[in-house]
Design a protein that fits this description.
Layout lengths: L2 E13 L4 E2 L3 E4 L1 E10 L2 E5 L2 E6 L2 E10 L4 H8 L2 E7 L2 E7 L9 E9 L4 E13 L17 E6 L8 E5 L2 H11 L9
Antiparallel strand pairs: 1-2, 1-3, 1-10, 4-7, 5-6, 7-12, 8-9, 10-11, 11-12, 11-13
Length: 189
Amino acid sequence: MASTGLSTFLHSELDEETGSYKTPAKMAGAIDFKEALDRNDAKLYADNQLQDSDTSVTGGKITLTVDDDDDVIFAPILGEFVEKITVDEKQYDKVVSKTNDEPKSQGFGFITKKNGGKYRVTFYPKVKFTRGDEEAKTAEDKTEYTKPTVEGTLYPVNDVYKEKVTVDSVEEAKKVLYSLFGKTQNDSE
């Protein structure tokens, strides 16, 4: 079924000891999403015929294009830290990125609007995100936006790397998405 919309990028830190998530929060405005799965590609031939094959998923990557890579939101996800600096008696957030930053495991999900009025909730139980390469461009005679990207590595949890649920309304989709984090929508509002 074709998609006609993308929304509601939610994330939540995964407590790997308990398998539970903190309260989900909006990551950023959703512009684009891409999934690239890693698969086994093993074939077994015997007596001149294909007898068996293994094309199972071993992990993968997701790439998110967002409207705003707000440092205060993304720094904790990426294992960076935020400290305060004061300049002329005004405080600012300073994000410090180190070579040994270790991203925190996150649950991640979103909603796509499907052709025919349905909504699909997609949820990844464990992702570690890294910041995409930064780019900027001078202003020209026509407005052009640069769009930040964030990349994530997928990790299966008990052999599950992705969950999908299709529902009839966006309201149901939001409730289902929160439930996949083990929460109710009211927990985050």
